[in-house]
Write a structure and sequence with these properties.
- This protein is an all-alpha fold.
- It has one domain: Cytochrome c-like domain (Cytochrome Bc1 Complex, Chain D, domain 2).
- The chain is built from twelve helices and no strands.
- Helix 7 crosses helix 11 and helix 9 packs antiparallel against helix 11.
- The longest helix has 24 residues.
- The protein starts with 6 loop residues before the first helix and ends in a 20-residue tail after the last helix.
- The N terminus is likely disordered.
């Protein structure tokens, strides 16, 4: 007798097939040229495996820190909305983005100019250096994250063929699947800008138009709430939780003065 699949499995299968069909149609009908020239061959992967983090640090200290900051321990986000945090980032993601800027598959005037003289090997050095650093500090309170954002991040929305963010970006926003970036602790303003660029088609370097398709399904409110959701995750989020607890508990009560000790009676010799 033929075994009937569980309803949940059928839902996931339909969601996956629907997303694949929608993205495939969207890609083939609108974008004929490849969105990126990066192919993760063994040679490309070896760039990361053989990279020199110490050399990456030299380049970062003399060049990248001017825009991307010294480290991720500052609770304030980077002021410029188009400047992402790179600390703790997936090294393959950084390398891909640099190559896309060099190939003009991703367009941003400042970055295109900045990476022009950087070799692919140096880009790999920079990538492994940043990947070894702690994630940025959380910049949003977890208590203010909406249930809707949490649901989108963890479960997605099958009615719109929107997969869960965690499926590619990791359960804790740490990044995964080769070049998928980490989102944990990312500046919320940069997150919003990136999603808006995907929506408007200004950013086109996502393979198979995955992010362009997903971004177009989301509302402005959903993007804003997802930005806050990921801004609330970070290497130092324990500090943020401690601050939240301190605020909710209020100031500590002063210690009660201790009663003076009674004088001791002299003892007989």
């Amino acid at each position: 007798m033929m075994q009937i699949k569980p309803i949940k499995m059928i839902k996931h299968t339909v969601l996956a097939l629907g997303l694949f069909a929608s993205v495939s149609l969207y890609t083939t009908s609108v974008y004929a040229a490849p969105s990126s020239n990066v192919v993760w061959t063994s040679e490309m992967r070896s760039l990361i495996k053989n990279a020199d983090a110490a050399n990456g640090k030299k380049i970062v200290d003399g060049f990248c820190v001017r825009c991307h900051g010294v480290d991720g321990s500052d609770i304030e986000p980077i002021e410029e909305e188009d400047t992402p945090y790179l600390f703790g980032q997936n090294p393959y993601s950084i390398l891909k983005q640099v190559i896309d800027f060099k190939d003009k598959k991703r367009k941003e005037r400042t970055m295109t100019a900045n990476v022009r003289k950087i070799t692919t090997e140096e880009a790999a050095d920079i990538a492994v250096y940043y990947a070894a650093q702690p994630l940025p500090m959380a910049t949003f309170k977890t208590s203010q994250v909406t249930a809707a954002a949490k649901k989108l991040a963890e479960k997605g929305d099958g009615t719109r063929f929107v997969p869960p963010c965690a499926g590619c970006h990791g359960q804790n926003g740490e990044g995964s699947i080769v070049d998928v970036p980490a989102l944990a602790g990312q500046s919320s303003s940069y997150f919003k800008l990136a999603m808006t660029e995907y929506q408007d088609g200004e950013r086109e370097n996502d393979i198979y138009s995955r992010m362009r398709f997903i971004a177009k399904q989301l509302t402005e409110q959903e993007i804003n709430e997802l930005a806050d959701y990921y801004a609330a995750i970070g290497e130092y989020n324990v500090k943020m939780k401690a601050l939240e607890k301190e605020e909710s508990d209020g100031p500590e009560a002063p210690d009660k003065p201790k009663a003076p000790k009674a004088p001791t009676k002299p003892t007989a010799d």
